[in-house]
Structure formats: structure tokens, C-alpha cells
Amino acid sequence: WNRRRLSVWRYREILPLRGEPVTLQEGGTPLYHLKKIGKDLGLPELYAKHEGMNPTGSFKDRGMTVGVSMALELGMKSVACASTGNTSASLAAYAAKAGVPCVVLLPAGKVALGKVTQALMHGARVISIRGNFDRALEMVHELCVSHGLYLLNSVNPYRLEGQKTIGFEVIDQVGGVPDRMVLPVGNAGNISAVYKGLKELEALGFIDRLPMMTGIQAAGSQPVVRAIEQNLNVLIPESNPETVATAIRIGAPVNAEKALVAIRATGGTAAAVTDEEILAMQKDLARKEGIGVEPASAASVAGVRRLVEQGLIDRDERIVCVVTGHLLKDPETVVRQCEPPVEIDADISSLLSVLR
Ligand code: F0G
User: Fold this and answer.
1) Percent of the chain at pLDDT above 90?
2) Which class for 32: exposed (0-12), middle (13-18), buried (19 or more C-beta within 10 A)?
3) Are residues 139 and 248 in the same domain?
4) Can you tell me which atom of ligand 1 is nearest the CA of 184?
5) What positions does the entry give for pyridoxal 5'-phosphate binding (predicted)?
6) Which listed residue, 105, 114, 287, 356, has the most CB atoms within 10 A of its CB?
7) Mutational test site, ligand 1, from 50, 156, 190, 278, max ligand atoms within 8 Å of CB
């Protein structure tokens, strides 16, 4: 495959837009073979699709190029979202490109620095609420209904249309259907979107089976995992979700019912990983594979490790983990985990003595 040929708009025949897109050249992200981590886990066919390599550093750009394009096509004059960070960074950039005003609501104190930085620099009206993401989403929903802003959270179907293309690219890059796709789950939009896209490819006759859709949540924020384990069709929301992976710190995922269908219909599963497991895998990806991701993204690969240990994954499976956001999104978590740089006098003997 040729990376340059892949992009969201390569698949425009099965996307909703008719006119010209608002694009920052999203999609076409690399698929890496995780040779060392795969060897450690006894999984020779373990891959990571690095969605952090999108224009604003997360998979949200795939959704926003379609969502913001549709906003213009529908004649909307302003856009809004609630966000744990990445959605706001992405929407701010695409709204800037489209030339429409943008309002974003963030849970105060719980958004990684890089994401806030992006929303601010791209010119969004950034508002921190003293409440969590679930509350911010309720509030922005109410604002959009009462004041006619266009809502671009994953309740917006056009967003999910764009995110379908992750699955399309994986099929193209792997050269077939992987046995399993593993995604971190927050609001559960992305796993639902990938499933929808692959179902469409199947209906069109391009593929003849689906990967086992596997959702990973953080132990402190795992309503979808609980629903799968307890065989429920509706969700019991968590009122105080907590995890170092702030991107997926969500207690009442709005797309949960769709995600449950995706997981069950494909014979997939859901699992939770602790913050320690997430941070250990973030480090392994960085140090063994050279792949820099934010904590929520490492959750997918940490989930594979956990499922292997539980004997729930076959060693010969071909597995694609979606790693959803870039390392640079969350520098503060890195600083808390790693030794700070050693500061020395500017002479060679000091240098040699610290390296000894
Ligand atoms: N990974 C990252 C890096 C995310 O930012 C998100 C969601 C997810 C995974 C989960 O995806 O919600 O479709 O299940 N972030 C949203 C936001 C909630 O506001 O940026 P999901």
C-alpha cells in the first residue's frame, strides 16, 4: 500500500457529503507492526494504527472533516462541542479552516495541556465548567438546541461517518480483514463508527467477515465493560469516572448501545485496564516501538496484554489496535512519569561524569 493514496476522502463514495470538503488532509495514518511488544506477548501479528498522526493529533479529525463540511452544507453559522480535549482541538481547527465561530465546553482541570493549547490557538471560545464531561455534554446539547449552534459531538451522525474510514484504511493496509480490532472506549463513538463502516463494506461485497470488535476502558471508568460482563442492553452510568487517561474519563457514554451491538455481533469483548497498566504500555510503545501516544491510546494495547494473560486471545490472531492520540497531547502526564533532564555545567567533564 502507499500511504499517500490513503485519506478520508479517498472513500467519498460512501461518505455523505456532495460538495467540496473542509479538509486539512486527514487520514492516511501509518499502520505499525508491533514486533517487540508482539514478541513479548506471543502475538506475531500485532499492529497499531497511529491515529495520532492526523493533522491535530487524533482520530477526531476524520470525523470533523465530514462534520464541519456538512455543517456548511446545511447552512449552519456556528459550531460547538463538549470535550475531554481532542474533540475540541479538532473542532477548533476545522472551524478555523471553515471560517465559522466555535464554542467548546471542557471539564475544568481534567483536560490535557496540549489539547487546551490547540483549542485556544485555533481561536475557539473555550469554556471550562466545574463539572465532568458528561455534564458538559448535557449543557452544550441544551445550548445548541436553544441557540441554533451545530453540535459536533459523536451524537452527530456525520462525525461518525468520517470515523468509519479508520476501518477502511485498516482493510487496505492489512490487505484483508484482521481477526480483531481493539479500540479505547470513551463516549463509544469510534468503535461504533468503525463497526458501521465495516458492515457497509460487507453489504457492498468488499469483505466477507468482520473483525472481533474489542473495546477497552479504564478501570475507573468502565460502564461499557460492566454492561458486557453483566449482559445488559442498557448502561448503568458511572457518576464519578476517574482515570489518568482523561480522554476516556466518561461515565455515561452516549453511543454505548451501538457499541454493545458492535461488540456482541462480532464475537468481540470488552475489558478494563488499570492506570498502571495504561502507563506501562504507554512507555513500552514509546521505548520498544518508537511510537508516542497519549494514555487513552495506550489503553487499547494494554487491553490486548490483559486479554492475552486471561487466555481470551488466540496467539495466531491478526490484531489491529487503534492508538487514538499523539504523545504530545499530554505532556504533564509524561513529566510525572519520567525522570527530569539532568542539568549540568557546560563542560565536557561534567557531561562525562553524569553519563558514567
Ligand atoms: N482516545 C482518545 C485519545 C480520545 O480523545 C477519545 C475520545 C477516545 C479514545 C474515545 O473515543 O469517545 O469515540 O469512544 N475523546 C472525546 C473528546 C470524548 O472529547 O475528545 P470515543
Assistant:
1) 98
2) middle
3) no
4) 9
5) 86, 186-190, 324
6) 105
7) 190
255 is in an annotated binding site: no
Tell which atom from ligand 1 comes closest to the C-alpha of 193.
13
344, part of any domain: no
Q: How far apart (Å, rounded) are the C-alpha atoms in residues 263 and 267?
A: 6
Q: Cell 511488544 identifies what position?
A: 37
When divided into structural domains, the chain yields a total of 2
Q: Which amino acid is at 137?
A: L
Q: Which of 187, 301, 330 to mutate to test the pocket of ligand 1 (most atoms within 8 A of CB)?
A: 187
Neighbouring residues of 310: CB distance < 8 A, sequence distance ≥ 6? 271
How do residues 275-311 score in pLDDT, each as one tens digit?
A: 999 999 999 999 999 999 999 999 999 999 999 999 9
Last residue of a domain, one of 127, 155, 183: 155
Range of the domain at 281: 3-58+159-336
Q: What is the pLDDT of residue 5?
A: 81
How would residue 4 be classed by pLDDT, with cut points 50, 70 and 90?
low
**pTM of structure:** 0.97
Q: Give the chain's mean pLDDT.
A: 97
- Ligand 1 contacts CB of residue 92 (under 6 A): no
Q: pLDDT tens digits, residue range 173-195?
A: 999 999 999 999 999 999 999 99
